[in-house]
Amino acid sequence: MQHIQSAMHENLMIAMDGFQKLSQKEMGAAELQVKEIVSLKYQMETIAAQKGYSQACKTSIPTCKGECCKWHFPRNLTHVDFFIAIFYMPEEQQAAFAQLICNNNKNQCPVLLETGCSLSFEQRPVICTNAYPCFNDRSYWIEKEKKNIQFKKAIDTLDTAVQSKKK
Q: Whole-number mean pLDDT of the chain?
């Protein structure tokens, strides 16, 4: 757990540092990529909602205790996921988020609270909306693969912007 927590904190710090170092012009370009990624994420969430996956996932959490949130997703959160998560957060909220990641030792994912994710279900990072492993409907996964090409392009562009600001 400590390894994942440290990795998540490091990725958040990369995201926060990159965010603070962007010029106004770079911030505008980054915002376009953030909006593209969020739009793609919502397209996939819409498909998941239409298939009943989102609601089934929400209502299953008391039974499964958020196993995906605890084990699968934390290992896969990147600095880009955190950059998107903090993009519209005020600095004070970013700092509180960093403290939560450092100090929450209750779950494998330090962003996960007893009441659920500290980020709202709808505002989860892309990786957290990319899978519904409890469901086995091939049509969802086919559509997801199509969107992955668009996700990758937008994420790679945003990653380049954040990485170029790395110390």
A: 80
H or E segment and range at residue 116: strand 116-117
Nearest-5° Cα angle at 7, 153 to 24: 50
In this prediction, residues 53-63 reach a mean pLDDT of 75
pLDDT(122) > 60: no
What is the identity of the amino acid at 23? S
Does an H or E element contain 112, and which? strand 112-113
Asked if 4 contacts 89 with a C-beta cutoff of 8 angstroms, the reply is no
What size, in residues, is the chain?
167
Q: What is the pTM of this model?
A: 0.78
The residue segments making up the domain with residue 118 are 2-163
Number of domains observed in the structure of the chain: 1
